[in-house]
Amino acid sequence: MCARFLLAEMPGVCAVPIGYDLGGPIATLTGRPFGMVADRADRLGAAETDRPVSSEIPTSRPRGAGLWFRLRNHAVSRSQPARGGQAQSQTSASGPAAQYRHVGAGNAPTIVVYHSLSTAKNRMTDQLGVTTDPEVFRRHVKYFARNFDIVGPDDLIRGSLPRKPLLITFDDVYRTVLDVGGPILREVDAPSLFFINPDSIVTQTVPIDNLLSLAVSHLGGAEVSRLIGLNERCPVSVQALISDHISQMSSAQTSDLKAALCTRFGLDEREIRGSCKLFLDAPDLRRLTDYGIRVGNHSMSHSFFRSLTEADLDSEIRLSRDLLEQMSGQSVTSLSIPYGSECDATDAALEAARSSGHRAIFLVHGRSNALRPAADVFYRISPRNAQPLLLPLSLRVLPHLRTAWYKLR
């Protein structure tokens, strides 16, 4: 009965993309869908990433096999070797964040991450699965206030944590964090941390993920795949395009793709950004302190670190931090690695972050922070639109199960 209830809460057991985690507790036991094709999963660090990544999951199974069939498929997929390539070559064999050990003393913090807070349909986000209903977010925040000790980033960095510490974070440049999230957080006097990409603000441009969402909604996946130069058999969802193709592009290639998409729309990137009213502008960053929101670094342009040179990393990490400090008037000491995957926590990226003054580095993966690869690296959980009834399972039980799974694999 209990298992049946949990499965009933899942938004599609056989087709749950990474990042849609807490609506389906069983499907995200490991932080990724059961049966995901091994090479794609390994390229992404088997992550519960901060944006949904598509999966290829067998939809047929022996009658009555249920969960164990999916567990078996998951184990089989893990035993298959990855194709390798650039993403693998830039990290150690086990991944830079795969060496688990107890870090520090005290209570392990629970860290949650959100993105956009809205009920409105928007083609710039509809294909990404990063939007939380504001009323759901309000219920989450009230649950956090009742059941946890909400802390700020400085508490986390100092290690001066209460018995049940929880940190609320946001990623990307969505203005609803300020307009909607800020007032909700102020209702319970909760601090938070907002990781921002300054490039979109300074240049008034649109992140590639949002452009792809708009393009697929407007043109269709097949046409967007054609513009990228893919054959018709390739995946055409935004999640698949990001995980399989954008992740392998250089900064110059991504810029060329954005230009091609805008040409296809017949609009300038700045026109698209200005008309959607979706993103923060420079003056907004100074208002964040009104709601106790600290600014963090989410890289200059939200690129996959795995495909960047050291010069690119310097721009994406150090220069981004400098810009954010200038625009916000705040000290920026935390970095959220774009897409939240261990594959992008390369040795070069970690060195660039630490040497430029970042004292806390955030991934996603939905694992417990009781076991971490380093004292300054933290895992986060993406609640999205989880019902409050499921939050105890999502925040307390599943992270420990995911950590145990990866220790044993």
Please summarize what this structure is.
This protein is α/β, with parallel strands linked by helices. The chain has helices spanning 2-8, 38-43, 66-79, 86-89, 134-147, 153-158, 176-187, 198-203, 208-219, 221-228, 238-244, 251-265, 269-276, 284-287, 310-328, 347-355, 391-408; strands at 101-102, 110-114, 116-117, 131-132, 149-150, 165-171, 192-196, 293-297, 334-336, 360-365, 371-372, 377-380.
Folded structure, characterized:
This protein is α/β, with parallel strands linked by helices and 409 residues long. The protein has 3 domains: 88 residues, no CATH class; 232 residues, Glycoside hydrolase/deacetylase (TIM Barrel, Alpha-Beta Barrel), CATH 3.20.20; 57 residues, no CATH class. Strands 2, 5, 6, 7 and 8 form a 5-stranded parallel β-sheet that branches. Strands 9-10-12 form a 3-stranded parallel β-sheet. Strands 1-11 form a two-stranded antiparallel ribbon. The chain starts with a helix and ends with a helix. The N terminus is likely disordered.
Topology:
Layout lengths: L1 H7 L29 H6 L22 H14 L6 H4 L11 E2 L7 E5 L1 E2 L13 E2 L1 H14 L1 E2 L2 H6 L6 E7 L4 H12 L4 E5 L1 H6 L4 H12 L1 H8 L9 H7 L6 H15 L3 H8 L7 H4 L5 E5 L12 H19 L5 E3 L10 H9 L4 E6 L5 E2 L4 E4 L10 H18 L1
